[in-house]
């Protein structure tokens, strides 16, 4: 089984990581597990001001911040995983990665770190649920 664990460093993402660990540990054969983070692109003016190297460092810092809690939890659970990062809006990046990687399941938190979210379900989770052909497990 191939599982894409999409995280953003939020509390909900940490809960999703716990669920992914529990699911992986319950399987007879360990799943192929990919930990993913998508960072929103900078506005062109900001990216131009930072330059290529500054922009790369900015996104790398955001990836590291978002992946660190899940990375730590997966290592403590002694689960093997790879990482995937993207500079794109989260929902399309997750959908594209799930389809291209032929994943069997996407696991993600219900609400991320964005300032705006709907009352019951975060906008990224709602978009992934409605547009993905891959089954999605949303964790609160």
From TrEMBL:
Q: Which residues form the UspA domain?
A: 2-140
Q: Which InterPro entries match?
A: Rossmann-like_a/b/a_fold, Universal_stress_UspA, UspA
- Superkingdom, taxonomy of origin: Bacteria
Q: Which Pfam families match?
A: Usp (PF00582)
- What is the similarity comment for this entry? Belongs to the universal stress protein A family.
Q: What is this protein called?
A: Universal stress protein
Its source organism is Arenimonas caeni
